[in-house]
TrEMBL record, chain A:
TM annotation in the entry: 12-34
Presence of the UniProt keyword Membrane in the record: yes
Alphabetized UniProt keyword annotations: Membrane, Transmembrane, Transmembrane helix
Lineage: Bacteria, Pseudomonadati, Pseudomonadota, Alphaproteobacteria, Acetobacterales
Signal peptide, first to last residue: none
Pfam families named in the record: Cytochrome_C7
InterPro entries the record matches: Cyt_c7-like, Multihaem_cyt_sf
Domain Cytochrome c7-like span(s) in chain numbering: 126-216
Protein name: Class III cytochrome C family protein
Length: 217, 281
């Protein structure tokens, strides 16, 4: 009876073990890293809406302010979506026969609300409040990206917990003067106050903003 | 007060046929007994279904539903408060209801209302369940199916002609027309019903409550010689004797006596009288 294994058996065995180890490690890494990927967070995906609303046209083209439609953003936790009536303030006069606006006209005619799909989401256990962020100098752009460059609205930032906590640890660099909060493409200029000055202006830094209960109530 | 019919006062006085007529489900309920084994089975099933409910992945995100016209004074995400009244057995108490975009979330007493002074009772607090009760009436029904108010008005217009014509052998219009309500203390509703009764002399108005207070009403009628409602001020009393009455606990309109009763502690006229309440049930 000859030898049960040839001389190549050692190499085959080592290679197999190495491949199995590689697969296990990569699956673990992928499983851990997958939720952080832009693909899983749907970053950059345009969401299909009942009307292909263009922020680019309305904000960059016509110069509408964010608060014209998202009227409660300074007062309430929710920025709110505009009622059909707001759309029809203009669209009863212009583009009255446009086919893409049929859903808006139907909504007013039949008194049935329009249902918009969520683009930017945080989980249900996160209590996000728009008004306090706006009041403390965080611009819309910091989380929603430059909507004036979006023909169709998509999610611009990952909005993972890491994204939120990065800013809560050190809000200074993400603050802007009150008059620039609703600017969609804003960059600090030479006259812009520095991060410590803005922190002082908005009375930040007194409370630890990374306390769990600030977001998870 | 509408006339009280000469119906048997208790179920024991009824004949078997009358019982079946009044309570159609009674016979099947009594014949289908629930023994111990069957009840344990049902309890086990209920427990198991509770576990199944935990497998629900949760409500899918169904998007933002934006209003067609913005409701006045409503800001999405901010609660609103409005003042209304909770009526029980004809006694109204003022309440403040907090709501989020029309969905009530909290009931509290109205400090500006004389029958509440900021207090509520358990029944008013439990209203929050009533608001979301799937069986809560949301509109008129026709033969058990939902119908619209215009349809109801049209149907009543049609019936009006029939009701106006007196039946054969009778001189009164409106015979066969019956109105069934709970205790009505709303002056507007009372006036409206009185106008209907004046227009249809043959019509009959029945008032009925699950736990009625007709004995109280009758007793007050006997005591004062005319229909009366008593507004109790227990501050004037040294000793309260309550006979089969929950004056300070759960009787309709009990909030104010309950609030003011402790005020008079230690202020009674006779120093040797212990300020107390005797209840005989």
């Amino acid at each position: 009876m000859g030898a049960p294994f040839t001389s190549r058996a050692n190499i085959i065995m080592t290679t197999c073990l190495a491949v199995i180890a590689c697969v296990v490690i990569s699956v673990c890494l992928l499983w851990f890293a997958w939720p952080y990927s832009d693909y899983d967070r749907h970053v950059g995906w345009a969401v299909e809406q009942p009307v292909p609303f263009s922020h680019q046209h309305h904000v960059a083209g016509l110069g509408l302010d964010c608060r014209f439609c998202h009227s409660s953003v300074e007062r309430s936790a929710q920025a709110s979506l505009p009622p059909t009536f707001t759309c029809m303030t203009c669209h009863s006069q212009i583009w009255t026969n446009a086919a893409v606006l049929a859903a808006v006209r139907d909504s007013l005619l039949r008194n049935t609300p329009m249902t918009w799909q969520r683009v930017t989401n945080v989980p249900d256990y996160v209590y996000f409040n728009h008004s306090i962020h706006v009041a403390k100098g965080v611009g819309c752009e910091s989380c929603h990206g430059n909507v004036a460059a979006m023909p169709l609205t998509y999610k611009a930032k990952t909005l993972t917990m890491q994204f939120c906590v990065n800013c809560h640890r050190n809000p200074g660099p993400n603050l802007r003067p009150a008059e620039n909060i609703f600017d969609t493409d804003w960059h600090p200029g030479p006259d812009t106050p520095g991060a410590p000055a803005l922190m002082a202006r908005y009375h930040l830094g007194r409370r630890n903003l990374t306390e769990c209960s600030i977001c998870h109530r | 007060m509408p006339p009280v019919g000469q119906a048997p006062r208790t179920a024991i006085e009824m004949s078997d046929r009358a019982l079946v007529r009044h309570f159609p489900q009674l016979e099947s309920a009594l014949s289908h007994t629930l023994d111990r084994r069957r009840m344990l089975k049902l309890l086990g099933l209920a427990l198991a279904s509770g576990g199944v409910a935990g497998c629900d992945p949760g409500t899918p995100d169904r998007g933002f539903v934006s209003a067609v016209r913005a409701a006045e004074g409503v800001v999405p995400g901010l609660p609103n408060v409005y003042a209304t009244a909770h009526v029980r057995d004809g006694y109204a108490e003022g309440i403040l209801v907090t709501h989020q975009m029309g969905r009530p979330i909290k009931v509290e007493g109205n400090p500006g209302h004389p029958s509440s002074l900021g207090a509520t009772d358990v029944m008013a607090q439990a209203l929050i369940y009533d608001f979301y009760d799937p069986d809560r009436a949301t509109g008129p029904l026709h033969k058990g199916m939902p119908t619209s108010w215009p349809d109801l008005a049209a149907a009543m217009q049609k019936m009006r002609a029939t009701a106006m014509t007196p039946r054969a052998g009778s001189t009164h219009a409106g015979e066969g027309l019956r109105i069934l309500t709970g205790t009505v203390t709303s002056p507007t509703l009372g006036r409206t019903i009185e106008r209907i009764l004046a227009a249809f002399p043959g019509a009959v108005w029945h008032e009925w409550d699950a736990i009625g207070r007709e004995n109280v009403t009758r007793g007050l009628g006997l005591a004062y010689g005319a229909p009366a409602a008593v507004i109790v001020d227990p501050r004037q009393a040294d000793v309260l004797l309550a006979l089969d009455s929950d004056l300070l606990d759960s009787a309709p309109g009990h909030l104010i006596p309950t609030i003011v009763w402790p005020d008079s502690r230690g202020t009674h006229r006779f120093k040797n009288v212990i300020h107390r309440m005797q209840t005989i049930l």
